[in-house]
Amino acid sequence: MHRPLSSPRPTTASAKSRASSPSKQRLREEVESPFRKVRLAFFSFSSASAAVALYFSAVAALKANIGGFEDAIPLEDALQTCAINAAGVIGFGALALREVKGGLLARLVVEPAAEGSGKRTLKEYRRASRVVIAAGGKDYLNRLCMSLCSDQLADENTLPEALLGVDIVIVPVLLDEDCKAVETRAAWDNATPGESDRNFDSSRANEVVAFPATVSMWNDYLKSDVETAAGQGFDVLSKGITITVKKNGRILRRATGLPPFGDYIGAMEVADGSRFGMPGDSERYGGP
After folding, report:
1. How far is Cα 131 from Cα 25, in angstroms, rounded to an integer?
2. pLDDT, position 209
3. Distance CA 131, CA 264 (A)
4. What are phi and psi of 151, to 5 degrees?
5. CA dist., res. 51 & res. 47, Å (int)
6. What is the dihedral of CA 164, 261, 212, 223, to 10 degrees?
7. In 3-state terms, what secondary structure has residue 112?
8. CB 3.0–4.6 Å: which of 82, 100, 123, 202 could bond 106 by disulfide?
9. Exposure b/e, 199-211, CB count within 10 A at least 16 = b
10. H or E segment at 173?
11. What is the largest CA-CA distance in the chain?
12. Cα distances (Å, whole numbers) of residue 52 to 37, 49, 73
């Protein structure tokens, strides 16, 4: 991509805006991280409380069923209480697990493909980029690489530039035969073009690609998604799975197959809500 030799001196307003961006990012991270810890503590405590209540309601149900206890409540009431407490254990437990997984997602480490880029956590992409995790076997990774790094139609492939324009970062994750994440960069660089893949160059998409680092953490995060997809009858290695992360760090959607690049380019600003209700949007999109 051509870069100008020099750039104009920024105006006072734009300089102030850029100078304030790091402080805004730090403020956002300081706000979000404590809230996650508070939510996790609340949901965990609520689940534990419901479990204790479930124990006592189960004892009450048992006493009502056996009979002969003066303090026993009607069996129907006891069973209803058991059902409510069981729902609390499951519901609050699921919410606590979701918060745990959200924290793990933020700590995942990637290494941008662009030369000279250092390793980053996914938390560092918040507010700036949307992250698309695309995991699958070698053939899936090869097809993903070709879709970004070769000309497959009559015209030149401009997908990387278009994805860069809507702040998309693709994280390809190579899975081995046991559906475990392994080193991905070598497989990406050595992808094999087919007859319809012209002008292949694995570096064409470097501006929008980042590779997973510390694969043990990636295995911990992807384990439940892989198991869920496999349990639903999908061949994870050949079909692949995609996880789309919004700019606020929340999951937008999980799906199988290659990433829907057309959807990302055409409607992502609205789909992940980045134009509505997020601090600093007025600077980019205009408005109050």
Report:
1. 17
2. 96
3. 11
4. -90, 115
5. 6
6. 150
7. strand
8. 123
9. ebebebbbbbbbb
10. strand 168-175
11. 91
12. 23, 5, 18
Between CA 18 and CA 261 the distance in angstroms is: 30
As a whole number of angstroms, the distance between CA 252 and CA 168 comes to 13
- CB of 133 within 8 A of CB of 171? yes
- Find the angle CA(120)-CA(141)-CA(268) to the nearest 5 degrees: 60
Q: What single letter denotes the amino acid at residue 92?
A: F
User: Which one-letter DSSP state was computed for residue 11?
Assistant: P
Q: Tell me which residue has tokens 């980053």.
A: 120
One pLDDT digit (tens) per residue for the chain, 288 residues: 443 333 333 434 434 443 344 444 443 443 344 455 676 677 778 888 888 988 888 888 888 888 878 777 888 888 898 999 899 889 887 776 666 665 678 889 999 999 888 999 998 998 889 999 999 999 999 999 999 999 876 677 888 999 999 999 999 999 999 999 999 999 999 999 988 888 999 999 999 999 999 999 999 999 989 999 999 999 999 999 999 998 888 888 999 999 999 888 877 655 555 554 444 444 443 433
- Beta partners for residue 241, in sequence order: 135, 256
Q: How many CA atoms lie within 13 A of 94 on its CB side?
A: 5
Angle between helices 75-107 and 12-66 (to 10 degrees): 150
Q: Which two tokens stand for residue 172?
A: 């390809």
Beta bridge partners of 133: 171, 243
Count of other CB atoms within 10 angstroms of residue 35: 11
DSSP letters along 179-246, please? S-EE--HHHHHT----TT-BS--TTTTGGGBEEEESHHHHHHHHHHHHHHHHHTT--HHHH-EEEEE-
Q: What is the CA radius of gyration of the chain?
A: 25
What pLDDT score was predicted for residue 132? 96
